[in-house]
Amino acid sequence: MKIIKQNLFNNNLKYISMKKNVLYVLTMIGLLLSTSCQKEEEKPKDTNDPKVTSEYMLVIKTGAHALKQGMSITYECAIVDKTGTITEVSDAVWSVGNENVATISSSGKLSAVGQGETYVVAKKTHKGVDFYDTVPVGVYDANIPFTVLPGAIIWSVDGGPLELFSIYLGTQTASYTYSSSDATVASVSATSGSSIWVHFHKPGTCNITVKGTIGGKENTFIVPVMVIGEPPIPVPVARVEISPQVYEMIMGESKTFSVKAFNGSGVDVTGQYPVVWEAINAEDEENDEFFGPIATINQNGKLDALYPGVVTVKATIEGITSQATVYIYPKKMIEVSPFYVDIKPGAKQQFTAETIEFNRVNNKITPSIIANPTDITWMLMNSEIPFMTAIGTISATGELTVSQQATPLSFDVVIAYSPSNQEIMEGAALVTVEMDMPINPFDPNDPNDPFDPFDPFNF
Fold first, then answer.
1. What's the pTM value of the predicted model, to 2 decimals?
2. pLDDT tens per residue, the chain (459 residues)?
3. How far apart are CA 8 and CA 4, in angstroms?
4. DSSP bridge pairs for 247
C-alpha cells in the first residue's frame, strides 16, 4: 500500500465541498517543475551602535518553516526591549537570501517558488539604528513519498537535543540516511532504538540532509537549521521550550501542549510570565483565511484538530517564541492510483480506489485498508470549473478516456469520492496530456529565443 502523501499531509482539504479539492490540486501543478538554487547573497552585517543595541533586539515571530512549493505564509516581527516590552513592527524591510527558492513582499508575505533552502531577513530602523533578525525556510517538493518533522529548525545551544522524525505511511521498505552540512554547528546521531536526534553545538546555520530510499527510489529532504545563542540583551525570558515539539493527530482529537521558560542565567522562570498560544496553518495561511483554521488552540495550550493539514503551534513568553509542528490526518480517505500519469490524446487509463482508515495504536497513527464505500463516484475536476474544459471523460468504474482533441500540456484531475459519506476524504490523481513532439531547447535568459515551454502551441 502506498499512501499518497499529498492526500495525507499539508493539503487542508475540508470535506465541505468539492471546490476545496479544486483549489488544492491547482497548487500541485507547480510541483512538476523545480528551480535550481543559486549561491545565496552574503547575510547583512550588524553595524549597530552598541549603546542602542544593548537595549533592544528585533525578533521574527513567525519562526522557522518548511513549505510545500507553491504555498505562502506571512512573516511578522517585533522589537523587544530589555524589560520584555514588545512593540509590534508593521514597517519592516523584508528580504530573502535566494529568490529562486522563495520571494517575499514588502508586507512580509513569502511565496515558496522553488525547491531548496534559504533564509528570511527582517530589518527595522529603531532609534536611528538598523536591527536585523534572520530565520531559515525550506521549500520541498511534496511529490516525494515521505516527510520529515520538523522540516525547519531554530534551536538554542543550551536547548538540548531535538528528535527528528522521517514519516512514510506505506508498506514498501523504507530506509533513511542523515547528514549535516556542518557538524560543528549541529550534528545528527541515531540511538539504539532507531531514534534520530539533532545535537546543537554552537551558533550558526547548516542543513540536515535526509535521504530516503523507498521502493528502490531515493529522494532527498533538506532541513535548514539555525542554532542561536543567548539573546543580545538581558531580557527577562531568554529561552522558551514547547513540548512536544512534533506531534501527530487525527481529525477530531485534542492535545494539550506544555511550555517552559528560562532567563539568561538558565534559571527556570516558568509561570512568572503569561503565555500567548497560537495555532496557524504551517504552509498556506490563505486557506485559513478562506476556509477557516484547520486547528484551534486555547490559552491553556489545548489544541483541537479540526481538519487535515499541518499546524504550527507557537508559545510566546515575553517576546520569545518556541514552536511545534503538528500533522493532522483525516479519519478516512480515498487513495487513487496511479497518482500521476502523462497520457497521449485518445488514450485510456484505468484508475483504482482504496479507502484508508487512520487509528491511534499505542499512541501512534496507524493506517489500514478498509472496504470501499459502495457509492464511490468518479469525476474530472475541470468539468466542475467554469471556463475550463475536461481533457476527456471518466466512467463510473474509473476508466479515463482522453479526447483526441485534448491540448498537449493541459491537465486535469481525477477525483474519487463518496457522496453519502462526508467523513471520507476524497482522493485525487493528476493527469497531464503528453506532447508527442520533441521540445526544442529553450534559453530563458535569451530575449530573442521565441520558444515558450509553457505555450502548448509553440514547439
1. 0.65
2. 333 333 333 333 332 233 333 333 322 223 222 222 333 444 444 444 555 667 888 888 888 888 888 888 899 998 988 887 889 999 999 999 999 999 999 999 999 999 889 999 999 999 888 999 999 999 887 677 788 888 888 888 888 888 888 887 666 788 899 999 999 999 998 765 568 999 999 999 999 999 999 878 888 899 999 998 877 777 788 888 899 988 999 999 999 999 999 887 778 999 999 999 999 886 555 554 545 788 999 999 999 999 888 888 999 998 788 888 898 999 999 999 988 899 999 999 999 999 999 999 988 888 899 999 999 999 999 888 877 888 999 999 999 999 999 888 888 999 999 999 988 999 999 899 987 654 444 444 444 444 443 333 333
3. 7
4. 326
- Domain topology for 144-235: Immunoglobulin-like (2.60.40)
Q: Domain locations in the chain?
A: 34-139, 144-235, 236-327, 331-433
CATH superfamily for 236-327 is Immunoglobulins (2.60.40.10)
Specify whether the CB–CB gap between 137 and 129 falls below 8 A.
Answer: no
* Continuous segment of H or E residues that includes residue 290: helix 285-291
End-to-end Cα, the chain, rounded Å:
39
Find the farthest-apart pair of alpha carbons in the chain and give their distance in angstroms, rounded.
73
34-139 fold: Immunoglobulin-like (2.60.40)
Pairing between β-strand 116-126 and β-strand 186-190 as defined by DSSP bridges = unpaired
Residues 375, 420: contact at Cβ < 8 Å? Answer: yes
Other beta carbons within 10 angstroms of residue 407's beta carbon come to 14
Common-topology check for domains 34-139 and 236-327: yes
Question: Is 331-433 in CATH node 2.60.40.1080?
Answer: yes
> What's the helix, strand, coil split of the chain in %, to 5?
5, 50, 45
